Amino acid sequence: MRPGQHEEGRILRPPAFIELENLGELARLTCALERAPLPVFGMRQEQDETPTGSSIIKYMLSTQLDLFGGASVFYHSFSDQVKQFLGYKTTGIGEEATLVDFPSNPTMVYAPIIEIVKVPPIFQRSLREKSPYDGPKFLSLQVKDVMSIVKVASYKVMFEEPPLPMFAFPSPNGSKWVLGAFTRIEEYEEASIFFYYEQDQRPDQNYVAYSASRSQAYFTNRTEELGMMYVKIVRLKAQHPLVDIY
Question: What percentage of the chain has pLDDT greater than the value 70?
Answer without folding.
Answer: 87
